[in-house]
Amino acid sequence: MAAFTSISTLEGDAQFDVYIARPEGRPKAAIVVIQEIFGVNEGIRRKCDDWAAKGYLAVAPDLFWREKPHVELDADVPEELQAAFGHMQKFNQDQGIRDIEATIKAARAELGDGGKVGLVGYCLGGRLAFMSACRTDGDAFVAYYGVGIDALLNEQHAIGKPVLLHIPTADGFVPAEVQRKMHEGLKDNRHVVLHDYEGLDHGFAAEMGARRNEEAAQLADGRTADFFAAHL
């Protein structure tokens, strides 16, 4: 069972939509799926549906809602890619983290006492997943090809829960020197594990479209599933 529904902001002064996919029976935990710059599109909804099929409550918040609710764009269409960059530039990431926190809170409320919440994000969502590891009380965090994580390394002392980073080595948005900074800067953090994917580009684990690399996507997604099974 999957549908959009509304939840309250942390302040309780507004509501925004989240896509929720529920499993058959009682969920074993919840997973917040954090969108790319393309919104909560079909690919992100499919990821939620897949987590629900694995027994999790899956929730994807519509993070661009303050500017434009229900953005749904296709990375393979040049005009839509440009539109996505436009939305990203207008997006307030600090506010986005508060909306993610509100989503964690809503997921925990549905799970009941002791329910754990993992977060997984892609692209912009990968950066936000790392920020969430530093700033929210989620229980486990996964970032696929997060952009600009090197600029967030000064926040890593706040990480107290497990974090998994998937890094394609030929990422057009994350140059080799940035990847080096990530590896160097995080190598002593016992909470963080990094996996490199040789020769692969940004978006290799997209659920659909030209960017997907089937073999690598399955490898990364398998690691993510094992990670959540261990920590949630």
Task: Give the helix/strand layout.
Elements: E1 2-8, E2 15-21, E3 30-34, H1 42-53, E4 57-61, H2 78-90, H3 93-111, E5 117-122, H4 124-135, E6 140-144, E7 163-168, H5 176-186, E8 192-197, H6 214-231
Parallel strand pairs: 3-4, 3-5, 5-6, 6-7, 7-8
Antiparallel strand pairs: 1-2, 2-4
How would you describe what is shown here?
The protein has 232 residues and is of the alpha/beta class. It has a single domain, classed as Rossmann fold. Helix content is 37%, strand content 20%. The chain is built from 6 helices and 8 strands; from the N terminus they run E-E-E-H-E-H-H-E-H-E-E-H-E-H. Strands 1-2-4-3-5-6-7-8 form an 8-stranded mixed beta sheet, with helices on both faces. Helix 5 links the parallel strand 7 and strand 8. Helix 3 packs across helix 4. The longest helix has 19 residues. The two termini are 22 Å apart.
What tags apply to this protein structure?
232 residues, alpha/beta, Rossmann fold, 8 strands, 37% helix, globular
Give the amount of beta strand, in percent: 15-25%
Poorly predicted ranges: none
Q: N- to C-terminal separation?
A: 22 Å
What is the CATH T-level topology?
A: Rossmann fold
Derived from helix and strand composition plus strand pairing, the structural class reads alpha/beta
| Helicity, as a percent range | 25-40%
Supply the CATH class: Alpha Beta
CATH architecture descriptor: 3-Layer(aba) Sandwich
| Major sheet | 8 strands, mixed
CATH superfamily: Alpha/Beta hydrolase fold, catalytic domain
Tell me the strand order in the biggest sheet: 1-2-4-3-5-6-7-8
* Secondary structure: number of strands: 8
Organism: Sphingobium chlorophenolicum L-1
Keywords: Hydrolase
Domain Dienelactone hydrolase: 16-231
Pfam family, one: DLH
